[in-house]
Structures are given as C-alpha cells and as structure tokens.
Specification:
With 231 residues, this protein is of the alpha+beta class. It folds into two domains: 102 residues; 113 residues, no CATH class. 45% of the residues lie in helices and 17% in strands. The chain contains nine helices and eight strands. α2 packs across α3 and α2 crosses α4. The protein is elongated, with a radius of gyration of 25 Å. The two termini are 42 Å apart.
C-alpha cells in the first residue's frame, strides 16, 4: 500500500472508479458490495475494500476475485481495470523514485564506508537501533581537502579498525566520489573495483509512533548514537 506523501496516489485509481460507478448504477452500498463479493464478515470486507481503493493488491485478492459477481461484470472487465490500476501505481512509484534520486543527487556529499567479511549485520535489530550504517560503516571525510585525499583518509580509518562491528573482519572500504563514481579499495589501499553509481549500504528503518524513521535518526532520538564531534 502506498502511504508516503512522496508517492501520493492519483485522485482516484481505476479500480476505485469502476467500483464507485457500478455501485451507483446497481444501487449498492459498500456493505452490499462486500457481501456480494463473498464476505460474511462485513467489517473485514470493508477494510479490504478501503485497502484495494488505496492500491493494496496482496491483501485484497479475495475481494478482487469476488468483484465480477458483486459488480455484475465479466471477469475480463475486472482484469483490465486491475491492469490499469497497476499501471497507475507503477507510474506513481516511478515518479517517486525520480524525486528521491533528484533529492539524493542534490544533497550528495562524498563519503566512505567500511567493508567487513559479512554483507548483512549479525544482529540487525541492535545494529539498526544503535545507528545503522551511519554509525557503524560510514567514514566521515574532510571535504575541505582535495578528492585525491579521500582514499587515504578512509584508508587511515580502515587501518585502525580491524573489525567492523556487526560485519566481521575489515576487508577494505568504498569511497563515494560522486553520485556516479565509487571505488572499492582493499586493506592495502589499492583500488580493486570501480562502480558507476555511489555505493549505498542497506538501510534499516525503525517503526516509531506509527511512522518509519531511519536508524540513525532513531539512535539520535534515543541517545544511542553520539552526536558528530562528541567523544
């Protein structure tokens, strides 16, 4: 289900419009509709109806299956409308991704990340609650210096970090130079692989007050992550 304000749905999805139009034509209330769709538990049926109209597909399969009979339409009509709905949702997702990419590029700052032997944190909950990648993987760079010093700056940190907390023995680091250029280095500071897109470690989000926030924000709110510059 799309819930982010950055992924706002169209004014009305194709499936909702079809349902509204047919209910009006047939003189059906929302409760009538879900009963005709096979729901004995009307409250549950109404929840599924709200979810479907909001773009939720996985949880509403039983309702979708019952719509042809409920709306007195051929199955093909429902299938075509669902296809249109999926296209609408895909377009919403595409626009949201473009916006996210634009914001990310506008706010991009060169940085580096430690690499361990493991690609997933050993204790993901604790890892997330204590700051995630921002605390345990990110290597702050002095951006007042030339970009040619970024690797040596990161190398110095990697050299005094034998073990990456939650990820095992340190095996190297990655420097993000631009949104379109990143380089992986080994423990000797030798470049071993180049990428055409900045490296982004997996993000952990924490549910708080019904909203999802990033791991580093949660850790700062709860005092589990020291402020920048703090001892």
């Amino acid at each position: 289900m799309v819930t982010s304000t950055e992924t706002a749905l169209p004014e009305i999805l194709a499936i909702e419009k079809l349902i509204v139009d047919r209910c009006q034509a047939l003189g059906l209330s929302r409760s009538d509709l879900v009963r005709r769709a096979g729901f004995k538990n009307v409250a549950k049926g109404l929840r599924r109806l709200d979810e479907l109209c909001a773009g939720e597909m996985k949880l509403t399969v039983s309702l979708i299956v019952g719509l042809p009979a409920a709306l007195e339409l051929p199955t093909g009509a429902i299938t075509d409308t669902m296809r249109q709905t999926v296209q609408q949702l895909d377009e919403v997702a595409r626009i949201a991704e473009e916006k996210r990419e634009a914001v990310w590029r506008a706010t991009f700052r060169p940085c580096a990340y430690l690499l361990g032997t493991e690609t997933r944190p050993s204790q993901i909950t604790i890892y997330g609650m204590t700051g995630g990648s921002e605390r345990w993987l990110k290597i702050p760079l002095d951006l007042s210096q030339s970009a040619v010093t970024f690797a040596s700056q990161a190398f110095a940190v990697a050299g005094r970090t034998p073990v990456v907390t939650f990820f095992g023995k340190t095996i190297g680091f990655i420097v993000n130079y631009t949104p379109d250029c990143a380089v992986r280095f080994d423990l000797n500071g030798n470049p071993v692989e180049a990428f055409d897109h900045a490296y982004e470690p997996g993000n952990v989000t924490i549910a708080m007050g019904g909203k999802e926030i990033s791991a580093d924000v949660f850790a700062r709110i709860t005092g589990m992550m020291p402020e920048v510059g703090a001892d």
